[in-house]
Amino acid sequence: LRGGANFVVCGPEVANVLEFTAGFRASVTADDEKGSIGSVKVGSLSKKFDVIVDPYFPRTVILVGRRGGSFLESGYVYAPYVPLQTTPTIFGPDDFVPRKGVMTRYAKKMVRPDMYGLVIVQGLLGQAGATS
Fold it and tell me: What is the DSSP letter of 14?
């Protein structure tokens, strides 16, 4: 590898714990829109790791990985080859409401599994063995 890990993906609870570490720096700008959907970059840890929060990520897992500078340093490839395709209008047989279908076709491949790792978090509140 050309270097170590440079991002972490975690759930909101783990991100809350990371925010209280000494090396955490929040990434906030004045023109950020209120509310976000999906994964959001919330800051950096020790000026080395970008911290990305996914609200649907498992609460006791941290994904650590490396984002390379070019396609030659890719660990995972998502390759859409039919970006978005719509069907003709179809009328429902029960209620005759017009409907359209949307589909895409793509390939996914893990090409460098050594660029990713998992950290299992223990001791969160609500977890067995946790202390308050």
Answer: H
**Percent of the chain surpassing pLDDT 70:** 89
List CB contacts of 125: < 8 A, sequence separation 6 or more.
Answer: 132
Report the 10 Å Cβ neighbour count for 7: 17
Q: Which two tokens stand for residue 54?
A: 């996914």
The pair phi, psi for residue 121, each rounded to 5°, is -95, 130
pTM summary value: 0.75
Burial of 116 from C-beta contacts in 10 A (0-12 / 13-18 / 19+): middle
Q: What share of the chain has pLDDT > 90, as a percent?
A: 60
Output the six-digit token pair for 14: 């783990």
pLDDT tens-digit map of 38-72: 888 999 999 899 999 999 999 999 999 999 888 88
How open is the CA angle 43-45-51, to the nearest 5 degrees?
45
DSSP characters over 109-126: EES-GGGEEEEE----TT
